[in-house]
UniProtKB/TrEMBL annotation:
<dbReference type="GO" id="GO:0005737">
    <property type="term" value="C:cytoplasm"/>
</dbReference>
<dbReference type="GO" id="GO:0004029">
    <property type="term" value="F:aldehyde dehydrogenase (NAD+) activity"/>
</dbReference>
<protein>
    <submittedName>
        <fullName>NAD(P)H-binding protein</fullName>
    </submittedName>
</protein>
<feature type="domain" description="NAD-dependent epimerase/dehydratase">
    <location>
        <begin position="6"/>
        <end position="214"/>
    </location>
</feature>
<dbReference type="Pfam" id="PF01370">
    <property type="entry name" value="Epimerase"/>
</dbReference>
<dbReference type="InterPro" id="IPR001509">
    <property type="entry name" value="Epimerase_deHydtase"/>
</dbReference>
<dbReference type="InterPro" id="IPR051783">
    <property type="entry name" value="NAD(P)-dependent_oxidoreduct"/>
</dbReference>
<dbReference type="InterPro" id="IPR036291">
    <property type="entry name" value="NAD(P)-bd_dom_sf"/>
</dbReference>
Length: 317
C-alpha cells in the first residue's frame, strides 16, 4: 500500500494542530513546517525547517505528499493582506509542483447578509469587511489554481471553539480562557443563533475527506454545519460544565470596540464582524453528509466541557 503523506501548514495553530492530529489517527504520515528549531519528530509529526511565506520552502516540504492542508493565519488581525495571500500562494505553488490536493478551511467572513439565513455552497461572496475581502480573494486564488489543473477543497465552517482554540470568540469573548469562569458573555442578540464548529469534529471531517481525496472533484466547496447555538443554549452548557447555575449571562461590550476602533487594529477588525452576530446563520451541510454519510458531531455539553478543560478554565474531573 502506498504511504499516504500530508503537509500541514500552520500545525502550531488551533485548526492546523487539530487536523494534524486527526490525519495521524487516520494513518497519514504528517509533515509540518516551523521557522524554529524543533525535534525531527514530535507527537508523531515530522517537522522540517521552513517559512510558509517562502514558496521554495513549502515546495521542498511538500515533496512526496498527496495532500497539503493550509491552516496558516496571520497572528491577531494584523496585516492580513500582506501575510495571508503570499502564504496561500506558496501552498498553491507546492500543490502544483507535486500534484497534491490543497485543502483549505473556509469561513463565513466571505459573505454578506444577502447570503442569509442559510448559507449554501455557491452563494455569492459579497463580504462587508476587510478580512472578508481577503478571504474571498484567497478562495479566488484556489479557483484559479484549479483552472490550471490543481485539485482543491474548501470546507467552510462557523466560528471555531475547542480545547485547542485559544484565539476564538468562545475563548476570548464568551468566556475568558485560562481563568476560572466567572461570567458568560454573548456577542449576539438575545435568542439569536450562531454557527460554531467544534474543532475536533471539524478536524475529523477534514481527515475523512482526505481519505476520500481520489473520489472528490477537482474543486470541492463543502459546508460544515457544526453547532447552531443561541445565548441560552451556550450559557446552559457552560453552567452545567462548571456546575454553577448562578453564572450570569452578560452582553458583549460592542461599545468598547467602537470607542477603540480608531486606535486599535484588533478592536477595529472585531467591530467589523458585528454583522455576523446580528442575524442567525446556518450552514447547509447536505453535500458533506452525502459524501461522508454523517457529519462528525460531539454533543454540545461534552464539547463545551472539554473546551473549558483544554483552555484551562476548569479542572479535569
Amino acid at each position: 500500500m502506498t504511504e499516504r503523506k500530508a503537509l500541514v501548514i500552520g500545525a502550531t495553530g488551533g485548526i492546523g494542530g487539530a487536523v494534524a492530529a486527526a490525519l495521524l489517527r487516520h494513518g497519514w504520515q504528517v509533515r509540518a513546517m516551523t521557522r524554529r528549531d524543533a525535534p525531527p519528530v514530535q507527537n508523531g509529526i515530522d517537522w522540517v525547517r521552513g517559512d510558509a511565506m517562502v514558496a521554495a520552502d513549502v515546495i521542498a516540504a511538500a515533496e512526496g505528499t498527496q495532500v497539503i492542508f493550509h491552516g496558516a493565519n496571520p497572528p491577531g488581525y494584523r496585516n492580513w493582506r500582506g501575510l495571508a495571500l503570499p502564504m496561500l500562494r506558496a501552498s498553491i505553488a507546492a500543490a502544483e509542483a507535486h500534484g497534491a490536493r490543497l485543502i483549505f478551511p473556509g469561513t463565513i467572513y466571505n459573505f454578506g447578509p444577502d447570503a442569509w439565513p442559510v448559507l449554501h455552497e455557491g452563494a455569492p461572496q459579497n463580504p462587508l469587511t476587510r478580512k472578508g475581502k481577503v478571504r474571498a480573494e484567497m478562495e479566488a486564488l484556489l479557483h484559479a489554481a484549479t483552472a490550471r489543473g490543481t485539485r482543491a477543497l474548501v470546507l467552510r465552517a462557523g466560528d471555531f471553539f475547542g480545547p485547542e482554540a485559544r484565539s476564538s470568540w468562545f475563548s476570548q469573548a464568551i468566556i475568558e480562557g485560562g481563568k476560572p469562569v466567572r461570567r458568560i458573555t454573548w456577542p449576539g442578540v438575545t435568542g439569536g443563533g450562531h454557527a460554531f464548529a467544534y474543532l475536533p469534529d471539524l478536524a475529523e471531517a477534514f481527515a475523512l475527506l482526505a481519505d476520500r481525496e481520489a473520489e472528490l472533484g477537482a474543486m470541492e466547496d463543502l459546508h460544515f454545519a457544526g453547532h447552531f447555538v443561541d445565548d441560552a443554549a451556550m450559557a446552559g452548557a457552560v453552567r452545567r460544565a462548571v456546575g454553577d447555575e448562578t453564572l450570569k449571562l452578560g452582553r458583549f461590550p460592542w461599545w468598547l470596540m467602537t470607542l477603540g476602533a480608531p486606535f486599535n487594529t484588533f478592536f477595529r477588525e472585531v467591530r467589523e464582524l458585528r454583522y455576523l452576530w446580528k442575524e442567525p446563520l446556518r450552514l447547509d451541510n447536505a453535500r458533506l453528509v452525502a459524501l461522508l454519510g454523517a457529519e462528525p458531531h460531539t454533543a454540545l455539553d461534552q464539547a463545551v466541557r472539554d473546551s473549558l478543560i483544554g483552555l484551562g478554565s476548569m479542572p479535569k474531573r
